[in-house]
Amino acid sequence: MRAMKNLKLFLLLIALVVVIPVISQSNTPDFKSIYLNARKAVLYPAAYKEEGFLAFFESWMAVDRNDTYNNILQKADQPSEELRRALSSLKSSYETLTQIHEYNEVALDIWEGHKTIPIPGGREDNSLDSADAWLADDPGFRPFLMDYRLENPSSAKGTIITIPSIRGAYDELTLIAKTFNELGFNVFALQGRMNTVKRSYYGLQLDAQRAIRYIRFHAKELGIDPAKIASIGGSKGNFTHIMAYEYFDKTPAQYASEVLKKPLEDYVCDHIDSIPSHVSALIYSYGSFLLGRNFSAQTIRDSHIYSKEMVEAGYRYPHMVVLAGNYDHMDIPTLPVVITALSDYNRLPDKLYEIGYEVHVSDKVEHGFGSGYKYPNMKKLWDAIGVFLEMNLGQ
Q1: Could you give the number of structural domains in the chain?
Q2: In a domain, 131, yes or no
Q3: Alpha-carbon distance values, 292 to 13, 75, 239, 335, 342 (Å)
Q4: How far is CA 16 from CA 13, 29, 132, 355, in A?
Q5: pTM of this prediction?
Q6: pLDDT tens digits along 84-111
């Protein structure tokens, strides 16, 4: 009997030795999976109920900007106290999200039909080991549009494509989309490629151009007016605007060979690539510095889209809205240059047409203000932009 009791006690001890670590492990959050799932979810806000998504996005940014992608994965099993708190916050905010659509139900694959997407030079350097890995694309990422059309798209005042400055960019994409929806516009939000190594953004430029072409090609089935399209960039998203007036008639292959002097490998242009990528208006949201200090009336006249032949064919330099915060030390010095250039152009006696423009500077607002939800003085600004677009889209 004593031997039997000793055996039972021995077996119980073994069970405790095995089970207790299992219980302990089961109570330890799998931060690695949480981070990877959140990293995916942040790209697809349209797949979730809106409640709580902004808090989730900010929690994700706090983690992802904390370190490189690969370092976070390596540290997730035994995170520092700071990283553990950030990951715990991300876990809580992620678990409160309610998914209402599958990802493929809210994403339009702009390079559909292509196994590979156009990469000038053959490959795009985009390392997840980069210090800017919070911008980087995960392996297998394909650019796409999220659809924020009105219930009756054909009743819209026009269609806007939003082009962000960072990966996910909830504030620059979804919140701006909701704002313009309320003003009567269809919106498509682009999740394009980011290059965090050489910062060339050629992939993002081609994605933005393709996005314009994609919705113009599908305009009838989407119920939109292809003559009333505008694009709004956030910071580096404004790099893409040039594709709407300088290279609007260049296919990706032509752009790569003629402009970048790089071959376009493993990609065959399709019928969508031949559709012009011009727009009626451009919104430079904290990005006028990209126009440069040499921007002038002559710059406009020298543009590829600017000629009598282009006017007769229905193409013209786009109208412009420039937005900046007075705390933005990149944008503010360039604004006088932009205003002078547009003013000088419109006073030319031999100009082909007038270019409508507005410039808005908001007080106590920094670079990267996105939809401006943090700034009370910007609430009325979007109304003014909506009026400007309604006046000028299609003109």
Answers
A1: 2
A2: yes
A3: 74, 42, 11, 10, 13
A4: 5, 22, 45, 78
A5: 0.90
A6: 999 999 999 999 999 999 999 999 999 9
Tokens found for residue 373: 């939800």
pLDDT of residue 23: 43
Query: What are the CA-CA distances from residue 373 to residues 369, 385, 388 (Å)?
Result: 8, 16, 21
**For residue 48, what are the contacts with CB-CB under 8 A and spacing of at least 6?**
41, 97, 98, 99, 100, 101
Distance CA 272, CA 212 (A): 10
Instruction: Kindly state whether residues 292 and 154 are assigned to the same domain.
Output: yes
Q: Which residues lie across from 99 on neighbouring strands?
A: 48
Q: Is pLDDT of 12 > 70?
A: no
Residue 271: pLDDT band with limits 50, 70, 90? very high
Rounded Cα gap, residues 123 and 322, in angstroms: 34
- Which pLDDT does position 190 carry in this prediction? 97
Per the structure, the complete domain to which residue 174 belongs is given by: 111-392
Q: Is there a contact between 79 and 67 (Cβ–Cβ < 8 Å)? A: no
Count of all residues that appear for the chain in the document: 395
CATH of the domain at 385: 3.40.50.1820
- 262 and 157 co-located in one domain: yes
Which CA distances in Å does 286 have to 13, 100, 159, 326, 384? 65, 33, 21, 10, 17
Question: Does 16 have pLDDT greater than 50?
Answer: no
Structure token digits, residue 60: 């994700």
24-61, pLDDT tens digit by residue? 444 567 999 999 999 999 999 999 999 999 999 999 99
3 state SS of 254: helix
Tell me the three state secondary structure of residue 302. Answer: coil
CB 148 within 8 A of CB 181: yes
CA–CA separation, 352 and 341 (whole Å) = 15
- Token couple for 302: 């020298």
Which pair of structure tokens corresponds to residue 374? Answer: 């943090």
Band (pLDDT 50/70/90 cuts) for residue 6 is: low
Sequence-separated (6 or more) residues with CB below 8 Å from residue 169: 234, 370
Determine the Cα–Cα distance for residues 201 and 291; give it in Å rounded to an integer. 16
**Under 8 Å CB-to-CB from 305, ≥6 apart: which residues?**
245, 246, 248, 278, 315, 316, 317
Q: What is the DSSP letter of 138?
A: P
